[in-house]
Amino acid sequence: MEEFFAWIGRTLGEVIRFVVDLLTGFFANLGASARSFLQELAGSLGISTSIVSLLILVVGLWMLWKAFRALTRRAIVATLVWLLLSFAVLSWLIY
């Protein structure tokens, strides 16, 4: 009977170790993948990889999305305003 519980304990320990190793590898690769994605995105746009530049990029893309949504509502003046603002913000980044 003692061997049975020893076997259960050993098997449970190996399963837990496998799951921990799997999750550690997954999250380590996830971080490296995200870092590579952001570096290549910034490199292809010609901007720096600082958090401020990436946040300004997100704001500029959000403004473009707002312009698209205004266009689908047929609000021409709002579309032009959002387009001009987004182009101004995005032009500050790309040099």
Automatic annotation (TrEMBL):
Entry keywords, A to Z: Membrane, Transmembrane, Transmembrane helix
TM stretches of this protein: 12-32, 44-64, 76-94
Protein name per UniProt: Uncharacterized protein
UniProt source species: Halomonas icarae
